[in-house]
Amino acid sequence: MPDYDFHTLSATDFERFTCDLLNEDLELDLHSYPEGRDQGVDLLQVAGDGRRIVVQCKHYRKSNKAQFIAAVEKEAEKEGRKSAARYILVTSHPMSAATEEKVMRVLGIPQQDVWGPERLNAALGKHSDVERRHPKLWLSSSGVLESIVNAGCWNRSEAELSAIAERAKFWVETSSYSEVVSLLDNEGVCVVSGAPGVGKTYLADMVALQRAHSGWQVVHVSNIEQAWSIIRNDERPQLFIYNDFLGEAELKLDAKSEAPGVTNFIRDIIRRKDANKRLIITTRVEVLQQAVLAATPSLQRIANDDTGRLLIKLSDWDEPTRMQVVLNHLYFAGLPEEELSAASVDRRLLSVIRHRSYNPYLIEVICDRFDAATTADDALSALMAALDFPETVWFASFAVLNLLATEIILTMATMKPGPVSIEMLRALVGDQGSATAWGDAWRSLEPTWVMVSGPPTARALAFAHPGCRDYILGRLDLDSDMAGERVERARMLEQFAELASASGDLWVDAGVPPLVRRAVIADAMKRRRGVVAEKIRLFTEQDVASSTTTEGRLRLLVTSAALIGLYGSADDSRWLTELVGEQIRDLVTIPASDGFALAVQLARHSPSSGLAEVTQRLATAAAASTRTVGDLDAYEAFAAEVTLPVVADAIRPLAYRIIMQEIDDLYDERDAQFVRDSAHDLQARASLYGHELDIDTVLEHADYLAQGR
Q1: Are 605 and 566 in contact (CB under 8 A)?
Q2: Torsions phi, psi of 250, nearest 5?
Q3: Listing from the earlier edge strand, what are the strands of the sheet with 52-58?
Q4: pLDDT band at 588; cut points 50, 70, 90
Q5: 224 touches 265 (CB < 8 A)
Q6: What is the pTM of this model?
Q7: What sections of 50-174 are H helices per DSSP?
Q8: Which partner for 248 in 244, 451, 468, 486 could form a disulfide, CB atoms 3.0-4.6 Å apart?
Q9: What is the dihedral angle through the alpha carbons of 381, 383, 389, 392, rounded to the nearest 10 degrees?
């Protein structure tokens, strides 16, 4: 028999669960009756002859016996009890024999119509389908987490899983959840996009918790190479999750080079759908739009492909869903029962859920500040104020941070989005106090500003929400002194790259404008050109010397070349040219995508001694390594800016072989439209290299598939 205490259910969750369970166990046809709550009616069934069965739900887990009995006594005087032919009380409050007898006497009902936790669990044991329909019952269960951890189902630490499960109590199932599940089962892949704060990652985690509970292996990846290394060739169920795969705030620098791998992995998952392989990838909708503008076909294909696509829009949420989100947060914030009841009937609640700035994460941040001393008036006033002026939420929290905590999040904002080890952060921030002061500082940032992950020996911090980083960068863009200080305090090449990207100066692709331009940060970088260029040289030389792979060194040089192109002089181009020349001197071939990307950046520099020679040598070596469609994407981005006949001649026969292999692979596909679109894309691509490609046979194969053969 199950043994739930129902603590993960809010009052509304408990009511819906009760409705489903009683309908199954007592063969009733109860319906929710929220507008009658003040009359003592939560669930109601009215027979043809007018006979009324009334159910009152008392989710009084947090109340003592006296408070619970007092609430029951109030119900006895309400119209709901007086008008009922049969009256049933259901509660999560612990029920002793004496308490049960008291309830029976006060309400004048038989023992069979008093349902406490034991009776609920006994009925659940007979109706497992009800248990499955209400995952919040078991998502936060310690037994479920232990089974996931012990089975090695999810590549997350126990602490991280506990944090995800703890958040499950706020979960409100929307149509998006069933759509994701349906897309995964029908397509194998689901691409979830939406604005910041709509719950893309949260949704993916809830799906993952349920799959892990069912024995699936859940794999979070931060790049597509990880996914390829973990996917199995057997039929063991695997769910891959790749959050913000195009970049968290902007289209990331390596999105172009990774796009072909992502495309191929998506196709592989679709092929293996029947072998229980699934993939969820999430992205901010504006970053997806940047990919549409990108120059590379692979990125555009990802952005434009509707396969398994789900756009979450808050405008699609109905009022009951929005209301339940708010009430869930108020309930778990610890407001007293009477204050919750007052809030649920306050007209300001409608103003909150209808507000143009309504955002689940904003609701969560505000409600996290409430406690048992918060009144309904306090809570609703705070929510309305935050929605009217969302920036004040961050401003008020930012203003009270101590200097060390402030320095931590300012430093994090100058780094790539994602977890940063506390050890690295402390090195970047510098020695600003004792270990105790440092620990107190980063802990004070939870949960509004940061999430903590990893074991005690290797903890890492990440912003709790993209909006946190956006706000910090916005603050820097309001204060030239603060922005200048960030530039001067940068201790890594990555920090300069992120500041340049945040300013809008550093573009991922020449044809893709940045989402945001921050003029003050841009000015702070440009006014310190000399300092920036010298630090770039120092960091580049140090990082290249310590890198152990050719790919790693080339990627460092790509970043350095992009930054020197923005902030360096002719002298800076010379040392960079010499360093690149040293790195490729003994290499006959180099990774194509990285080589072409570096050649593009060098070609943008002002002409200097040896630059043209190094650029050509680099591009020629990259051309010799061309093996995949992704390599062709990289070459075409290079060729759009630089005309080098020797490189074009070298890559032409290689391009033909790659394109013909792609044509051959289309015969293994089962999606007729995909085959047609891909064939035409490949024909157009072949013409770029001076080849004529006959695709009639492939199109016949597509027609054959369309006829269901």
Answers
A1: no
A2: -135, 165
A3: 31-32, 43-46, 52-58, 86-91, 114-115
A4: confident
A5: yes
A6: 0.71
A7: 65-76, 79-82, 97-107, 117-126, 128-133, 136-139, 142-151, 158-167
A8: 244
A9: 100
Give the three-state DSSP class for 453: strand
Check if the beta carbon of residue 340 is closer than 8 Å to that of residue 11. Answer: yes
d(CA 413, CA 210): 33
**Length in residues, the chain:** 709
The pLDDT of residue 36 is above 60: no
DSSP 8-state code for residue 154:
B
| Nearest to 637, CA basis, from 603, 609, 596 | 596
The whole-angstrom separation of Cα 563 and Cα 109 is: 78
d(CA 241, CA 280): 5
DSSP category for residue 88: E
The answer to whether 104 and 76 are in contact (CB under 8 A) is no
Report the C-alpha gap between 53 and 28 in whole angstroms.
Answer: 9
DSSP string, 497-531: HHHHHHHT-S-SSTTS--S---HHHHHHHHTTHHH
421: which 2 tokens? 């080890």
Residue type for 396, please? A
Span 277-287, average pLDDT: 88
**Three-state helix/strand/coil letters over 197-249:** CCCHHHHHHHHHHHHHHCCCEEEECCCHHHHHHHCCCCCCCEEEEECCCCCCC
pLDDT in tens, 310-359: 777 767 788 888 998 999 999 999 888 889 889 988 999 999 999 888 88
Nearest to 296 by CA among 269, 256, 246, 333: 256
